Amino acid sequence: MASHRRPKQPSRARVSVFTMTAAAAVALTAQAAHADPQTSKKSVKEKVDKLYEDAEAATEKYNGAKEKQAKLSKEVENLQDSVARGQEDLNRMRDELGSVATAQYRNGGIDPSVQLFLSSDPDDYLDKASAMDQLSTKQASALKKIQAKQRLLAQQRKEASGKLKDLSETRTELGRKKKEIQAKLSQAQGLLNSMTAKEKAKLAAQQKKAEHKSSEQAGMSDVKAGSGRAAAALAAAKTKIGSPYVWGATGPSSFDCSGLTSWAYQQAGVSLPRTSQAQANAGTRISSQSQLKPGDLVLFYGDLHHIGLYAGNGQVLHAPKPGANVRFEAMGNMPFQFGVRV
What we know:
Elements lengths: L11 H22 L3 H70 L15 H10 L5 H57 L3 H22 L9 H11 L18 H11 L8 H4 L4 E3 L10 E4 L5 E7 L2 E4 L8 E4 L5 E6 L1
Antiparallel strand pairs: 1-6, 2-3, 2-6, 3-4, 4-5
């Protein structure tokens, strides 16, 4: 006989869970539909700022690799010139000794001491000849000079080969860093393009207002002047306020952060290294912000990828990031590490 049981009804607990889940989904959908535009804009700005910061960190590494490439290129060029000159000297020395062999041949035979040219191993020949006391003082001196020159040339060729390999690797690294920077800048631009014209205008207005306020604050208080060169560097940097940040740029019309500081100090007659990390070792470190003087270098972030010039009144004059111009800014806006008195 067939069973006629009633279908099992869902429990109240299960119904409640279904109801709550559905309600939550509706609420989330409604919340998403009515999201605060201000919150969305803030999120985009934070992401863009982070991408710009990452791009700047990569820029300083790019600058370091570019500086290394220039140094290696010069070293390779000098070594290759030295090898070429050394080879000319060696050829001349062999020619001079060869003329002795020619003269001896014409006079009835070649002295064993000048059979160096017939030997595949000059070092071995020199050792044996010296042991047999077959060399005249003049000939022994000439052979030893040739031997020393051969060793030097072999060493220089080996060194040049190693530096050429380093140069090739550095160029590869440059290309990689360049792609990394361009990718981050492209991402940031894509995010900015997602904003409405009204949102972009409002962000631009806020940035301009902040720059104007910082500029006013920098000139409000009397601060003890720095050294002559530091003061001159700061004065030079002030003439570049409003110049755009461009990665890898060292002036005079655009700059990255370390490009601005190195350019400013160059105007004061001081040569600084290219990167912010290298400039961190260009003088005496100042750990306390209260001891900073105008013109001192100031380093930010744990990896020291950002640098500027102390402008007094708790302000830094710097090339901030892609999309921004050289400006004053409150030092409290970034994680200060230490200052450097050049």
